Each structure stands twice: as structure tokens, then as C-alpha cells.
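Bumping with the actual sequence this time:
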Amino acid sequence: MYINKAILFGNLTRDPELRALPSGMNVCNFSLATNRVYKDRDGKKQEQTDFHNVVVFGRQADTVNQYLKKGSSAYVEGRIQTRSWDDKTSGEKKYRTEVVAETVQFGPRSSGTGGGGRKQDDAGATDEAPMSGGAGIEYPKDDINPDDIPF
């Protein structure tokens, strides 16, 4: 059995580009930057940034193009693929390695873009807003007593 799985969480380095294939299916391309922090041999903290090309197809391509922009954070799951083609101008063979996304989830938005984080009303009171995916779920405000759980 073989496994080809990529899992990334990072920030878009440019706005997504939406195009249509000859078949009519939409395809969206964007680049995602991920950071890695580590200590070098001398014990100094180092940071390395990697850039990943991501491709999304179909309806999800439309959604990515509509809601994500440069600087947005995104979680991507997919497979790694390398394409090759002959460059028309130089005649050289070109290669591009990219993640073909199966799932794209939007990360938390900063308070300046209107999503997630804390909301503040006119009186100055704050209210915690869901970051993602939890809309419509009411969580208890009190601690849960383990003795109340029926299993």
C-alpha cells in the first residue's frame, strides 16, 4: 500500500487565481506559506519558511476564490503531484510540484476582517464569537460534573 497525503496549515502568499478548464470545470491556484521554528547547532532559534503551490478543483475552487485572499490562513489536505511540460519559448522541460487539495478549510480571521474573535457592543461588553465550524452549537457555560454523564 502507498500513501500520498499532504497536510498544511499556513497563510496565502497571493490572491487565489480562478480559471476554467476546457471541460468547464473551475480550477483555483494559490500559494501557501508555512513556517518552521527550530534551534540550530548553536542553540539559536531559527525560522524557515516553505512555499507550497496548491490547486483546487470544482465547487471548492469557487469557494476558495470567493472567501480567501492574500494573508488569509487555510488548512489544506490533499496529495502531492508533480507535472511536467515543454516550455514553448526555451524548449526546456519544466516541472511543478503542487498539492492537489481534497479539503480546504478556512482559518480564523483577524478582527479587522469581520470574522471570529471577540465582538464588542456599544456598552463595551465583549462576547466570544465562534472561530469556525461551531455556529449553531450552544456550549454549557457551567462546568460539567462527570457524575451527571450517563455512561
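The C-alpha cells above came from a reply further down the thread. The longest strand covers residues 26-39.
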